[in-house]
Design goal:
mainly alpha; about 25% helix; 2 helices; about 70 residues; elongated
Length: about 70
């Protein structure tokens, strides 16, 4: 079994909009906590920095797709 070289630096943290409120709204398909889709959540760590940035930029506009009562408003 070949030796695997040790990483030269620790892995860097990946920015995430997760707020640990993991409930998906069936009507919109969005998480009530972070406003991402299940697909986005599942692939977040494998997305490119550019892909994650695009999702993050889109999140504020997604809030209007959810019934405000589900968000406690």
């Amino acid at each position: 079994m070949p030796d695997t070289p040790a990483p030269s630096s620790p892995p860097r943290a990946i920015a995430s909009p997760c707020v640990m409120v993991c409930t998906v709204d069936g009507a919109s398909g969005l998480c009530l906590g972070c406003l991402r889709t299940l697909q986005e959540i599942a692939t977040w760590s494998r997305m490119t920095d550019e892909g994650r940035a695009a999702v993050m930029a889109d999140l504020p506009g997604r809030k209007s797709r959810i019934d405000p009562r589900l968000l406690g408003e």
